[in-house]
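Hi W., the zinc ion complex you wanted:
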Amino acid sequence: MQFKEQFLKKLSSAKKLVFFTGAGISAESGIATFRGADGIWNKMKPEELASFNAFMKNPDLVWEWYQHRREIIHKVEPNAAHLTIAELEQYYEVTVVTQNVDNLHKRAGSSLIYELHGNIERNFCVDCHTFVNEQQFTGDEVPKCEKCGGLIRPDVVWFGENLPQDQFSAGEIAAEWSDICFVVGTSAVVYPAAYIPQSAKRAGSYLVEINIEPTELGRFVNYSIFGKAGDVLPEILKFVEDKK
Ligand code: BV8
Ligand code: ZN
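Structure:
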């Protein structure tokens, strides 16, 4: 794979890399994206399921949907893209800022991850906020809190909900201080997360998009690499290893 000379120069002098990732980085693990051809949202509207109102209106339906997604996630593995990002920690200071809730960056071995939209493996009680992630849930009806009887919900950020401020600010600062900010597998249409690559660019980071198709971010980036994340990232690692 041929890369632009300017990018390779940046890569050789860089110290800090940030990887801002979306559902596309998990596509090659077999997890459907949200807005692509087979996207989850094509079958249903986000507000129908990924919102607090939807959950309170029909908790069993929403809980069942997350159980279904957890089952898929437990059956898949991190792919070459996740694993390469973890391996690049041998050569750079690497920070992952992910919109994904699938826990695959953690399973791939990345050591610094900011989760902007939560993590599907964690759950808490809507009333007393007790976390119950160690509990194995059986069946599809929404579990009740053992402490207060409240409904248990996944610890993910639904539409209309604020993002965890600590994760967002830390992720944004890391992106702004990065030498290169890679934007991997995201349509960059969900806010405020999608502000982060733009802030990175404004702060002087070299913005590189890795996607299989053009996105809204295209007009901001310094360099668009079209290809599958699982193919492109290992090629970048190969260049780095040959240089070292
Ligand atoms: C909020 C968790 C404050 C749940 C998700 C401006 C400012 C603030 C808010 C808004 C705003 N404008 C609009 C809003 C509202 C809304 C929003 O952004 N709506 C959009 C859809 C218009 N934002 C919110 O509600 C946020 N909260 O703002 O709070 C507030 C408070 C009160 C009242 C108002 C505001 C909360 C947003 C978080 C929602 N939660 N997920 C769950 O997962 O169940 S969003 C969901 O979308 C996922 O987290 C996902 O990560 C995220 C982004 O999608 P992508 O990751 O980009 O995935 P997508 O399928 O879209 O794209 C995949 C890409 O990969 C494609 O480009 C494809 O080409 C590429 N690809 C595919 N295969 C590959 C590949 N690339 C490389 N290799 C491959 N192999
Ligand atoms: Zn409770």
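The mean pLDDT is 94.

W.
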